[in-house]
Specification:
This protein is of the alpha+beta class. Helices cover about 30% and strands about 20% of the residues. The longest helix has 16 residues. It is globular and about 50 Å long.
Length: about 210
Amino acid sequence: MSVPPDLELTDAEKRLAIIVHPHPTLRRKSKPIMRVDDQLRDFIAQMLDLMYESKGVGLAANQVNLPLQLFVINPAGKRGEGEEMVFINPVLSRPKGSEEGEEGCLSLPGVYGEVVRAAEIDVEAFSHLGQRIKLRASGYLARILQHEFDHLQGTMFFDRMSPPKRAELADEIDEFEHDHEVRGSLGNLPTEEQWQAWVRKIETRYSPQA
């Protein structure tokens, strides 16, 4: 299926970068993916590259300004080690138990906090190759899946923290928000209209019926 000319991406639009809090895409609920094309597969390859370069173990599409239900993970955090996995349109279910553990986020570099997550979780999704994924995850893998799935709902990890623990991060989070405000005032960020146009373009291309 060909892409209409108005939905073709420019060379600049094809290059991804990790966005940081409080970029609005991080708070937008992602749309399901209805088509997988060569450009989406290239986006996935770039997401894996960015994840490894940033020493992360997971990266959600909206962290690279793509409001789509997609994330990549590798619990080992190193290329060539562990297992790379791509999750398209994931669904989590049957949480069991709870565990507290430290989490960080590539969209809030250097900020870490304790988050309570389900100890076990089911996930169903599709890979970029059309393969169905269905597994029961526990421990660290379960935490990664829940963290990345939260991103697709517009939820940041600090939203899951208890008020006292979140308060401990307030100054660090405020710094990111202040920096964003300053860059916006200097014209170094896309305008609201430009961002909305980008969102419409991506959602129309990959989620036309959602």
